[in-house]
Design goal:
This protein is of the alpha/beta class. The protein has two domains: 4-84, Rossmann fold; 102-155, no CATH class. It is 39% helix and 16% strand. The chain is built from six helices and seven strands, in the order βαβαβαβαβαββα. It has helices spanning 11-19, 32-42, 51-59, 74-84, 116-121, 141-155; strands at 4-6, 24-25, 45-48, 63-66, 102-106, 124-128, 134-135. Strands 2-1-3-4 form a four-stranded parallel sheet, sandwiched between helices. The chain has a three-stranded antiparallel sheet with strand order 5-6-7, with no helix packed on it. It starts with a strand and ends with a helix.
C-alpha cells in the first residue's frame, strides 16, 4: 500500500492527503536523519521541499519526490504527487492528526467530548480510532468538499 511521508515543510499537505483518504505520515518534530530512516524503514515515499534531503534520500535508494519551492499551492502539489505516484482517493477521510481510521458515532454519545452545540446541530460525528480526536462537518466542510471534488475530477482523468 502506497504511503507518503512529508517533511516538516509539508505538514499541511500531509493533512490534506489524509483528508483524501491517502496514507500519509506527517511527523512534526523530526530531523533529516530520522525522517530518512523512517522513509526507508516504512518504505514510504518521502515528500520534501528540501533539495539536500531529497538528494540524500536518492543516494540512500529511498523513494522521494522533491517539490520545488515554487510549488506552493495545494492543488499544484497534489497534481505533482499524483503524476509521479498515482494514488486513489478513498471515500473515507483519515484522521488529520494521526492518520488512523475514523468511526461514525452518534453525537449524543460524545457529549462532554464535543460542545453541546455540536450535539444539537449534528446527529453523527467521526471519532479517530487512533488518537480519539472527534470530527464533525462544521462550516469549513463545504470548502473541504469543494477541494475533494476538484481533486477527484482531475485524478480520474
Amino acid at each position: 500500500m502506497l504511503t507518503f511521508l512529508t517533511d516538516v515543510m509539508l505538514l499541511k499537505l500531509g493533512r490534506w492527503l489524509r483528508i483524501l483518504g491517502v496514507r500519509a505520515n506527517a511527523p512534526e518534530n523530526i530531523d533529516d536523519d530520522a525522517i530518512l530512516f523512517q522513509t526507508l524503514r516504512e518504505r514510504s515515499v518521502l515528500l520534501t521541499m528540501d533539495r539536500e534531503l531529497a538528494e540524500r534520500a536518492r543516494k540512500a535508494d529511498a523513494a522521494v519526490l522533491y517539490l520545488p519551492p515554487t510549488c506552493l499551492e495545494l492543488e499544484e502539489q497534489l497534481k505533482l504527487i499524483h503524476s509521479s505516484y498515482p494514488f486513489d482517493i478513498e471515500n473515507e477521510t483519515l484522521c488529520t492528526s494521526c492518520g488512523a481510521e475514523l468511526a461514525v458515532r452518534d453525537s449524543r454519545s460524545m457529549l462532554g467530548k464535543v460542545p453541546e452545540s455540536v450535539v444539537q446541530r449534528f446527529d453523527k460525528v467521526r471519532v479517530c480510532s487512533g488518537c480519539g480526536q472527534v470530527f464533525w462537518e462544521g462550516s469549513h466542510w463545504k470548502n473541504i468538499n469543494k477541494i475533494i471534488s476538484k481533486v477527484r475530477r482531475w485524478a480520474s482523468t
